[in-house]
Amino acid sequence: MKTSIQEIIGSYDSSVSLERAFTIPASWYTNQELYELELRNVFAQSWQFVCRLDQVESAGQYVTADVSGEPIVIVRGNDNVLRGFFNVCRHHAAAVMTETEGTAAQLRCPYHGWTYSLAGELKGTPDFAGVCGFERSQNGLLPVLIEVWEQWVFVKTGEKGATNESLNDFLGTKLIAQIQPLNLNNLYWFERRHYLFDCNWKVFVDNYLDGGYHVPHLHKGLDSVLDYSNYKIENGERFCLQSSPIVTQGAEPETGAVRHGERALYYWLYPNFMINWYEGAMDTNLVLPRGVDKTEVIFDFYFPDVSESTRERNLASIAVGQRIQDEDTEICKSVQRGLNSRAYVAGRLSVRREAGEHLFHRLLAADLR
Length: 369
Ligand code: FES
Ligand SMILES: [Fe+2]
Prior knowledge:
The structure is a single chain. By secondary structure, the chain is of the alpha+beta class. The protein contains ten helices and 17 strands. A hairpin with a 3-residue loop joins strand 14 and strand 15. It is globular and about 75 Å long.
């Protein structure tokens, strides 16, 4: 007998404390219907990182992206206003902009040549005379909600529900106040990398949020610079900060050379954005569901100096991050395989380590109900 989506959602009890909690059940990681519900109720209803501000600094600069299954274009107008639109032509629905980013004087659909201004107004409609009741002014690109935080542009693609909260409300004052003193405008974007994982997006997030539990076992290099016993996990309303003192004694040379400062800060923002901060290096991770058991993670790497003279050092820092991702790739695949086994239903959580995962699962359950 097929289990209904209501039964699957109902099989997780989000009301119990961490000491008594189970993880969300395996079916949440494998069920296609639940996956689609997540796109609608979680991804479309939350503020989603879409691009960096440095990609859309001047008039005509644009970025396209798939946000919770919707084609989106972000573009800076001649009036310097940053706007977001559904990248869907009002004629026959083709994507208007097809490059991932670029600069354009106008937005031109490649299918039948309709053109839109940088502000989204429909301007040109070749061979379209005599069409009754067609209002050009009513056929501009449909706007999407867009806001900026720090160096990042966020959009919300869902319909304005009852909870039409601003990006600031979504982030919360606590997170905004914690990130602000890091002075992220002193860091410059250096490089982007894409990683593919054979797992549900939540397997990647769980792995990130396990409070360093897997670090001594899976990431020997990283483990050599972190003070595992003083690793801290602090939950906010919709974010989790994991932090660890950095140690220099006994550090593995490659890792030690590029991980400095007093503390490493690992911020996760529900549902799928991470900020990893070390003194002199930062990367962000955007976790994109690409199917019930496929996940793409986009890494953006930032450094205080991105000039040619520091290139080697910056690349060495990225290489350390790359090794950690490679170490996680296999384990994520292995977990996904296990979640599909009839031997596994749900697991328990470490009280010392896994409070972040518990928060994640509870927030998710609230959004799915
Ligand atoms: S679909 Fe864009 S011009 Fe026809
Ligand atoms: Fe890891």
